[in-house]
Predict the 3D structure of the following.
Amino acid sequence: MKNLSLIISLFLILQSCTNKHEAQKANVQKSNYLDYSDRDDKLSGGVKMIPIQTTAGEFKVWTKRVGNNPKMKVLLLHGGPGFTHEYLEVFDSYFPKAEIEYYYYDQLESFYSDQPNDSSLWSVDRYVDEVEQVRKALGLNSDNFYLYGSSWGGILCMEYALKYQQNLKGLIVSNMMASIPDYMTYANEVIGPQLPVAILKEIRDLEEKGDYENPRYSELIYANFYPEHVLRMPLEEWPNPVNRAFAHVNMDFYVTMQGPSEFGVVGDAKLKNWDIKAELSKISVPTLTIGGAHDTMDPKHMEWIASEVQNGQYLHCPNGSHLAMYDDAENYFKGLIEFIVNVDMEQAK
């Protein structure tokens, strides 16, 4: 009798395991997230070079798709200006599990795209127009299109929403303020004084002389400012995607638009007067702003942006700096993914 009971128990356990395995197999088979069989970019691994029309002629920009999801597609706008998509490659560790389709994209003048070195094309409006051309080429629309921007990419996000929000399903502004003058004030009055007095004085003396190409300037910024407010890790531990993005930066473009470093905007940088605070209330699309406690940008300002737009929320990263997707990754991606999924669920009702 005992043997019969044991046999029956073993059978039930095996049957349960089989049923569980079949259920898991069925769930895997239902998902076509990694099915690229009907995609025209299959043989290029998701890469497309997209033609962009400008006043200086036609150029091509680099994009790369990851995954399939008809309702959640995120176009990633990198920072700089003049950096690359590379530092956003950390998304590979989080978005696929959530089955979010996403697109890397190097803006014109960035490493993987054409680099005409034409400063007449270096304006916010021209880049917003470029984003719209990329959107059309990728077939993104208000049923599925989430626009994400990090730093300078956040400027483009907000400006894009002010002009084209009818095309958006959701907007994500990561680690970017709505005013460069306010950013400069924060850098001078809050971030700067956190540096040792002698270090800050030497940095400011070099900036006053315009001696940005002096190796000492880069040394001071990288050793004292970046590991505290750009990415809170020792420089020798910075992840490979971040190092590649810094190695590939287009410095002429970056300096012309932003200045020589992330330590505020100095000199005659083109962005120094950019400010859209008064226009934020026009943005009605669901919006997430993200800030880090140790950011180069004021986290309170980024929380304020979320209160100014019509349908906003704020994600705070208590351990994060400007690249909070690295030094506070778990908080960052948990909140970001929840936002995208929740917007999708709300609009599906």
The two ends are 56 Å apart (CA to CA). Residues 33 and 97 are 10 Å apart (CA to CA).
